[in-house]
Amino acid sequence: MPDIASILKSAVRKPDRINVLTFVTHERYQSAWGGVDANFFLWNDEKAKPWMHQYAPMPANHILLPFHPSTPDVPVGIDIDLVITHHLSQYDRALQAATHLGVPLLRLEHCLPDETWSERDRKFAASKCGDFNVFITNHQMREWGGRDGDLVIYNAIDTELFKPTEGVRREPVCLSVVNDWIKRDYVCGFSFWKLATKDLPVRVLGDTPGLSRAAANVEELAGAYRSSLLFLCTATNSSLPTTVLEAMASGCCVVAYRATAIEEAIEHGANGFLVDSPEEMNATVKRLMANPSYCEMIGAAARQKAVGRHNLSVFVEKWNQALRLAVDAPWWRKQWSSCA
After folding, report:
1. CB atoms within 10 A of CB 239
2. pTM
């Protein structure tokens, strides 16, 4: 359990360093914040998700607060400048904290509106906006009804960790990486995958009881990408899975269901392939497996795209800008009443 002294010691104390109050939500995503010029204080209450270190190491600028059953236990001497919410389930708590602290609320949205929502539910969810809003794809921002001033910051991956290994022959196997895949069928397309991979050699990583286990660490995950010829994405209602970007950076030939924002990363036939049905995915994969050299050429183009747009340097620069805009914008204090 962290104590006050260790928290005060861990926090970088600089006049221009932004202190953010947020939640543990997506380890793979939040690990990319390690280079951002901010301290991220992690709310630790009865609803808090623990940091799963096998998914990603916790960055040095992420500091777990002491446990408190209902409110964030921010030590005296730490002035919070901004609250970030990642998910609708966190929004009310984040809004209450931002109001109490007198600081802006930044809503970072990772997901898409639920397809089962009524129009009324969709409008209500969209109304839970922040003083400043960040989305991870243009498609997602449109789906949520983004406002003027909202930003798109694409997910980033460590393109030095996720990269091909020169001279190593890839195995003729179709890799997929999904957690809790069976229960998340409606979002991640487990039923689609079962049909699409009939008679195909597959490899699955992810914590899905009865199907697969998660990689023991990021090195094992990176090794799986490097050694697999193809990567299959069957997500049906996901903004743009980080696993697709990791696979692209690793030089995998990606075959993905043509849904949501996937076309913002993959250009069909140039750096990957898009399909409209399980049968089409199955047939496409069989053709590709018969020509591994072509797969590797497509994988090289995929890596080029990932390195150019989804590298950590661009991500960190954009988040530094976004945090500064959110904290310094003179209009933020007026936003609570105008958010509708």
Report:
1. 22
2. 0.82
Name the nearest CA neighbour of 338 among 127, 142, 85. 127
Kindly state whether residues 326 and 278 are assigned to the same domain.
no
**CA 299/CA 184 separation, integer angstroms:** 28
Residue 70 is predicted with a pLDDT of: 78
Domain that residue 68 falls in: 4-154+313-333
Closest CA to 94 of 145, 55, 42: 42
CB 55 within 8 A of CB 27: yes
Whole-number Å distance between alpha carbons of 299 and 294: 9
If asked whether residues 8 and 150 sit together in one domain, one would say yes
The answer to whether 179 touches 214, Cβ cutoff 8 Å, is: yes
Q: What are the two backbone dihedrals, phi and then psi, of residue 75, each rounded to the nearest 5 degrees?
A: -65, 150
DSSP annotation of 96: H
* pLDDT tens digits, one per residue of 25-62: 999 899 999 999 999 999 998 888 999 998 889 999 99
What whole-number distance in Å separates Cα of residue 73 and Cα of residue 42? Answer: 10
Q: What is the DSSP letter of 34?
A: G
Query: In 10 A of CB 169, how many CB atoms?
Result: 10
3-class DSSP state for residue 62?
strand
Tell me the CA distances in angstroms from 72 to 33, 89, 317, 322, one per residue in order: 21, 16, 28, 23
Cα 333 from Cα 173, distance rounded (Å):
53
- Quick one: 253 and 324 in the same domain? no
Alpha-helical runs (H) found in 119-184: 119-127, 138-143
The span from the CA of 106 to the CA of 98, in Å, is 9
